[in-house]
From TrEMBL, chain A:
Protein's UniProt name: Cobalamin biosynthesis protein CobW
Family label: Belongs to the SIMIBI class G3E GTPase family. ZNG1 subfamily.
Presence of the UniProt keyword Transferase in the record: no
Keyword Ligase in annotation: no
A GO cellular-component term linked to this record: cytoplasm
Domain of life the protein comes from: Bacteria
Pfam families: cobW, CobW_C
UniProt-listed CDD domains: CobW-like
Source organism per UniProt: Pueribacillus theae
TrEMBL record, chain B:
Name of the protein: Uncharacterized protein
Lineage: Bacteria, Bacillati, Bacillota, Bacilli, Bacillales
Length: 338, 109
């Protein structure tokens, strides 16, 4: 399933008043985006968006059997995305190149990913390109303490946009960044004042950037918080056995998917290029098989962000299964935030 | 749609997606690779299922059949539904983080 004929979707999420709309307002002014980007919002805030392809969706979540929060379908989004698609196919003058979904401050992004990845129509027309989470630099620390939704939004993010950095004190900003890195060590950080950002930030990272971000995950910071979110990263030197790894990961996600908040990886499986793996809870994006390696170094990197699971348990499990299945790849480094 | 059993397949499980992203596939093309992967997967699964008294078989290269020792059998389409079906047959959860399972696995090898 190639991405060639699919339209990218950018999800913008973040706390109430953290600058989602201000950011979009500025980005949508760019001529390359203003004509051909569909925007779906869940609420009309104080700061209005002036955009001709603007749609409003009232958050409607269909609870599916299973009971896991991430595996719920968002019917409202399904309808809006389908009508944008219909418009695009009916009217050839009106090109639709990208869709931006702005969520409410309280929304959990996982059901959005689930809807797009599993809907029989949407999965063939759209793919999730990038998830952006805006965090208010001044009130961010407080919001992390008070709203569990923000923590979820941060762990799902590919890019974290720090807003209002002009009014935050320097020490405050660094402290916030360190806290956010505890929750999501592999995200890219962008500082933005008054929503003045490069419109390119709504595009997903290329494989080279992706690799850099994953590689630059230093030893995760020891967390003193009681949010019980921890991360672990692995580095392998030999190619992994994809069949055995898929078996283990699908088993892990089946049993513990709700608490595996994020999986990210760039894996050498002995093919010409690496496989880019990206998952949120039970939802794994279609793995992207790259044609070639972005640089000379061929190491596999794998990151898990876990809730209420000891990183050591995952590490022991992976090692034991690999040894047992006779598919052991040499483990170079394991970093866990214990 | 599966022409044999009439099951509507809406989703390609992520473990079944390959690097080949060409739009057209000729009949029989890459069948060997595909079959090899399936057989390998079945072998690896059986090493794990051995501990639970279950057995997986590849069926005609299109489905898997999961059997227990009492003769119950279920048709499974992919890894997405395999673990849930296995748990249903066992009536207990399968968790790769389970210390008991891990201990068993490490003593065997």
């Amino acid at each position: 399933m190639s991405r060639e004929n699919k339209k990218p979707i950018t999800i913008v999420t973040g706390c109430l008043g953290s600058g989602k709309t201000t950011l979009l307002q500025n980005i949508l002014k760019a001529p390359e985006l203003s004509e051909s980007t569909g925007v779906i919002v869940n609420e009309f805030g104080k700061v209005g968006l002036d955009h001709h392809l603007l749609r409003k969706a009232d958050e409607k979540t269909i609870l599916l059997s299973g009971g896991c929060i991430c595996c719920n379908s968002r019917e409202d989004l399904e309808q809006e995305l389908k009508s944008l698609l219909y418009m695009d196919e009916k009217d050839h003058k009106q090109k639709l190149n990208r869709v931006i979904i702005e969520t409410t401050g309280l929304a959990d992004p996982a059901p959005i990913l689930f809807t797009i990845a599993t809907n029989p129509i949407l999965q063939h027309h759209f793919y999730i390109d990038c998830v952006i989470t805006t965090v208010d630099a001044e009130n961010g620390l407080l919001q992390i303490k008070n709203s569990p939704e923000l923590i979820k939004q941060v762990t799902v993010a590919d890019k974290i946009v720090l807003t209002k950095t002009d009014i935050a004190k320097a020490g405050q900003l660094n402290e916030l960044k360190n806290r956010l890195k505890e929750f999501n060590p592999s995200a890219e950080f962008i500082e933005v004042i008054h929503g003045n950002a490069n419109p390119k930030i709504i595009e997903g990272n290329t494989s080279t950037d992706y690799l850099d971000h994953i590689k630059n995950v230093n030893k995760p910071i020891v967390s003193d918080n009681n949010s019980n979110i921890q991360s672990i990263s692995f580095t392998f030197s030999n190619p992994l056995n994809w069949t055995a790894f898929g078996l283990w990961l699908s088993m892990l996600l089946h049993a513990n998917g709700e608490n595996v908040l994020r999986v990210k990886g760039l894996l050498d499986v002995g093919e010409k290029g690496p496989i880019v793996l990206n998952g949120v809870q039970h939802i794994i994006h279609p793995p992207d098989h790259l044609k070639e390696w972005p640089d000379e170094e061929r190491l596999s990197h794998l990151i898990f962000i876990l809730r209420s699971i000891e990183p050591d348990a995952v590490s022991t499990s992976l090692k034991t299964f690999q040894r047992f299945l006779g598919t052991e790849a040499e483990l170079l480094e394991v970093n866990s935030s214990l | 749609m599966c022409v044999l059993c009439g099951e509507f397949i809406m989703q390609v499980h992520w473990t079944d997606q390959t690097s080949d992203d060409s739009d057209t596939v000729r009949v029989g093309e890459k069948q060997r690779d595909r079959q090899r992967t399936r057989i390998e997967r079945v072998n690896l699964c059986n090493q794990i299922f051995n501990h639970y008294g279950l057995k997986l078989e590849d069926w005609q290269g299109s489905k898997y059949i999961l059997r227990d020792r009492k003769g119950t059998s279920k048709v499974v389409h992919d890894l997405g539904s395999l673990w849930a079906t296995a748990e249903n047959m066992l009536k207990r959860p399968i968790d790769p983080l389970d210390p008991q399972l891990l201990e068993k696995l490490s003593t065997v090898s």
